Amino acid sequence: AVTHNRHVPFFAIAVGFWMPQHWESVAWRISGAAQQAVRSGNYVDWFPTISLGATSALLALALAQRVCELPVDTRTYPVDAVDFISKHKLHGRMIVTFNWAQYVLAAVGTPVESNHGISVQFDGRFRTCYPQEIIDEHFDFVLGTAPHVPRYRLAHSPTNDDARILRRGNPNLVLISRRQSHSTTIMQQQRDDWALLYEDSLCQLWGRRNIYDDQDGCDFLPHEQRLVTPNRQPSVDYIAWPAFPPTSEPHTRFANRQPGLATPYSEQPQL
Predict the structure, then answer these.
(1) From the centroid of its chain, how far is CA 62?
(2) What is the DSSP string of 33-77?
(3) Among 32, 36, 240, 266, which is most buried by a count of CB atoms within 10 Å?
(4) How far is CA 162 from CA 46, 62, 139, in A?
């Protein structure tokens, strides 16, 4: 509970409503016990009071640190990869593993249709925004369709085409976790059409060869600017939330966001 602060305001409301009378009762008991211990000279009786006070102080300190600064684990989130995307102004339609998608949208997502930025195939809105067909495509790509992978799928979803996600909506970028070996295996099989633009110990970023290898194209990314370092570890373990790249402009993005422009590219007509 100390390390999880998503629902701290609701917890505080509940505590503020139910607990004061109990705290008052405890305080009266502690006060009475302390006075009795002083009169009797038996300071061993003070031990529970001191322990309770020290424990409360430690919990308060830990909670204050969590509330004042929310750390982002760079060993879990692709902070360096997103910084690479922002630095090189990569844009377009991206397939990104489910638990990173909303971070990518917040950090480098496109605010309006006329702006360069990233739109994603699937994110944490799950069934509130995406049809089951899209969900099946995503997790077929990330996890595979083997019987030992327990998850819900449509009965008519293909079981032998885990790479079909790469054809829907003409995506040009793929950001995947190296810990999800099924997706990395598929991308290795697609090397004729996809080039590795970035890699570290956590993730891989792939781009279409006909875009990023095209020296005459406006999105050409020279090989010397690509960063493929499989053993590279983050320079720090944690950075402060929201962990946006220094080259991004998140406040401007959110200020300009307009209703109706958050449609995932997977729901748009295929190109």
Answers:
(1) 23
(2) HHHHHHHHT-GGGGHHHHHHHHHHHHHHHHHHHHHH--EEETTTS
(3) 266
(4) 66, 45, 9
For residue 66, give the nearest of 238, 246, 251 by alpha carbon. 238
- Could you report the per-residue pLDDT of 69-84, keeping only the tens digit for each? 788 999 999 999 999 9
CA–CA gap between residue 118 and residue 109 (Å, rounded)? 4
- Provide the whole-model pTM: 0.72
Model confidence band, residue 44 (pLDDT cutoffs 50, 70, 90): low
Query: How high is the pLDDT of residue 263?
Result: 44
- The C-alpha atoms of residue 128 and residue 143 are separated, in whole angstroms, by 21
- Give the residue extent of every domain in the chain: 8-68, 79-267
d(CA 74, CA 97): 16
Q: Is the dihedral of CA 161, 145, 147, 203 positive or negative?
A: positive
Question: What torsion, rounded to 10 degrees, do the Cα atoms 142, 147, 153, 156 define?
Answer: 110
pLDDT exceeds cutoff 60 at 99? yes
What Rg, from alpha-carbon coordinates, does the chain have?
26
DSSP string spanning 167-207?
Answer: TTT---EEEEETT-HHHHHHHHHTTTTEEEEEE-SSEEEEE
DSSP 235: S
Distance CA 122, CA 128 (A): 11
